[in-house]
């Protein structure tokens, strides 16, 4: 792994996106454990895109407009669903005070879908990771897999750190219902904006 790959990957992972927002929401509603589970789910959601890129399937997405549009529509719909569910999420979590926490399996499924239904992520890996695989390498797939696993590891670590920091503020927001409500409405607005951005995106 080159320093360029590590630094570039770290910058990409640390830039707040849908995965970070979802992890933060789970940290505030369910604590550190829920945040770590969400981070794991978001990381797991990257795997299909990396496998598709390594097998050349991502090229189909890059060349077939209909396939790209179908996946994009599914992604937009799911982001809108997340926006709606988070709008009242702060109030629900506050009322139950964390006693009826969301199951880990449900958190993982939602987190995986956030990344799985994002066609831009597939195209990103098609353009990003191959840059760090020399054209004359004798085992390009092995090197591609190694870089992919490093990227996924960084994703999990950074997201878990974000979540742990947010979870440390949980006691504070639980004592302030209006703050909790506004935070979750902010998360909801962020998902709404990202759904709009995805809707108007192109290959």
TrEMBL record:
Topology class, membrane: Multi-pass membrane protein
Molecular function terms from GO: homoserine transmembrane transporter activity
Signal sequence bounds: none
Keyword tRNA-binding set for record: no
Transmembrane spans: 6-24, 36-61, 67-87, 107-129, 141-162
Keyword Cell membrane listed: yes
Record's GO cellular component terms: plasma membrane
Family (UniProt): Belongs to the Rht family.
Protein name: Lysine transporter LysE
């Amino acid at each position: 792994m080159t320093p360029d790959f590590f630094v570039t990957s770290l910058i990409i992972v640390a830039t707040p996106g849908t995965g970070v927002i979802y992890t933060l929401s789970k940290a505030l509603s369910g604590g550190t454990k829920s945040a770590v589970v969400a981070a794991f789910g978001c990381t797991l959601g990257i795997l299909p895109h990396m496998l598709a890129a390594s097998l050349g399937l991502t090229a189909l997405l890059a060349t077939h407009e209909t396939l790209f549009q179908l996946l994009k529509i599914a992604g937009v719909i799911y982001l809108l669903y997340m926006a709606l569910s988070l709008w009242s999420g702060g109030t629900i979590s506050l009322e139950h005070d964390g006693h009826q926490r969301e199951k880990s399996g449900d958190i993982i499924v939602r987190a995986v879908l956030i990344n799985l239904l994002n066609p831009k992520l597939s195209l990103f890996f098609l353009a990003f990771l191959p840059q760090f695989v020399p054209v004359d390498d004798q085992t390009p797939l092995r090197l591609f897999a190694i870089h992919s696993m490093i990227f996924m590891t960084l994703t999990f670590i950074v997201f878990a750190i974000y979540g742990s920091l947010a979870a440390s503020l949980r006691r504070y927001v639980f004592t302030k219902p209006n703050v909790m409500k506004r935070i979750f409405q902010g998360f909801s607005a962020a998902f709404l904006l990202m759904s709009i951005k995805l809707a108007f995106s192109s290959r």
